[in-house]
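User: tokens in, sequence out, please.
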């Protein structure tokens, strides 16, 4: 998923939703945003970012950049997300 796609899909959602990686039926908080020449990466940490915090960071990124998740030494593209209560589970 590209930055522009993610923004278009989430623009009308509540800004206080917490972001998590859904990996093998495990939920891991996405806490950091990193920018490179070819991608924007989220990584796992202690406290989850909110959708508002991610949206703010994405304002400074090129819309065509790939949105990825770094976890366990691997980088994978974000394919989608689902909303559960006050959380967004990215996968």
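Assistant: Sequence out:
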């Amino acid at each position: 998923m590209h930055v522009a796609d993610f923004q278009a899909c989430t623009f009308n959602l509540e800004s206080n939703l917490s972001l998590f990686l859904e990996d093998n039926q495990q939920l891991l908080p996405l806490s950091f945003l990193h920018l490179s020449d070819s991608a924007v990466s989220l990584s796992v940490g202690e406290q989850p970012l909110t959708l508002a915090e991610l949206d703010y960071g994405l304002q400074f990124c090129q819309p065509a950049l790939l949105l990825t998740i770094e976890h366990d030494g691997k980088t994978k593209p974000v394919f989608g997300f689902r909303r559960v209560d006050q959380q967004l589970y990215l996968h």
